[in-house]
Specification:
alpha/beta; TIM Barrel; eight-stranded parallel β-barrel; two-stranded antiparallel sheet; 45% helix; globular; binds indole-3-glycerol phosphate; tryptophan biosynthesis
Length: 256
């Protein structure tokens, strides 16, 4: 699944570059102000709420709300930041970032499969405050380079790991924000115990976010107690019968 998405992303980036060369986008880019990491550090408990309408494994998750409506519900109910999928495998589009940024004040994370620096520029040009960098799909050299470019663009990186080997690689860089993905991107199965396992190996000065498979306030509470700074939640929010109430549950249970 991951390989297929990455391959399609490479093709999409190549096509986008032909359409709009990097030189052109570079002119439109205004540097950000690291609003994402600031919001997370200032929060006692950070909830990054994801607008995820479609998943490649499960198909349509939500057709009750648009990306914009979800972002507004999250913003009104205690979320710290909003995550917006821009990859076509999740039915996302880079313009969704533009729309969300125009409507809510919260910092926005661009949820992409970043394999080329071109995507860092398009994310920032759309207004993203942060991007996801998935350790499994980049080399060590790319990771360092992407972190550097994002910093120059005033954008934060949430660097995602799923295994101990990836965590060790990432902790050799100066990445501050590390996301432990509870989902195995090869099989798409999730278990929050992945966070408990890897947390023991995290250096104290890294800010850790637990990602995926978080079902409710009880899971959030356990993760907070274990020592993570926050959570990234998509599916449980978008399938909830009351999205606003679920957002509040996740936000409040972590601060108990
Ligand atoms: O919907 P969930 O299980 O709450 O997960 C959200 C988020 O963590 C997930 O969308 C995600 C995190 N990293 C990824 C990388 C690729 C695809 C998806 C993801």
């Amino acid at each position: 699944m991951l390989d297929k998405i990455v391959m399609q992303t490479r093709l999409a980036v190549a096509a986008a570059k032909m359409d709009e060369p990097l030189a052109k986008i570079e002119n439109q880019v205004v540097a950000g102000s690291f609003a994402f990491s600031r919001a997370i550090k200032e929060a006692a408990w950070a909830v990054i709420a994801e607008c995820k309408l479609v998943s490649p494994a499960k198909g349509t998750l939500c057709n009750t709300y648009t990306v914009l409506e979800l972002a507004q519900i999250y913003a009104g109910n205690g979320a710290t930041a909003v995550s917006v999928h821009t990859n076509t495998a999740f039915d996302g589009h880079i313009n969704d970032i533009v729309k969300v940024k125009a409507a809510v004040k919260l910092p926005v994370l661009c949820k992409e499969f970043i394999i080329d620096e071109y995507q860092l520029y398009t994310a920032r040009a759309a207004g993203a405050d942060a991007v996801l960098l998935i350790a499994a799909i980049v080399s060590d050299a790319e990771l360092v380079r992407f972190l550097q470019i994002a910093r120059e663009l005033g954008m934060d990186c949430l660097v995602e790991v799923h295994t101990l080997a990836e965590l060790i690689r990432v902790q050799q860089t100066d990445a501050r924000l590390i996301g432990i993905n509870n989902r195995d991107l090869q099989t798409f199965t999730t278990t929050i115990s992945q966070t408990f396992t890897l947390l023991k190996h995290c250096e104290p000065d890294r800010v850790i976010i637990s990602e995926s498979g978080i079902k409710n306030g009880e899971d959030a509470q356990k993760l907070k107690t274990a020592g993570v700074k926050g959570i990234l939640v998509g599916e449980s929010l978008v399938i909830a019968s009351d999205v606003a109430a679920m957002t509040r549950e996740l936000a409040l249970s972590g601060s108990k």
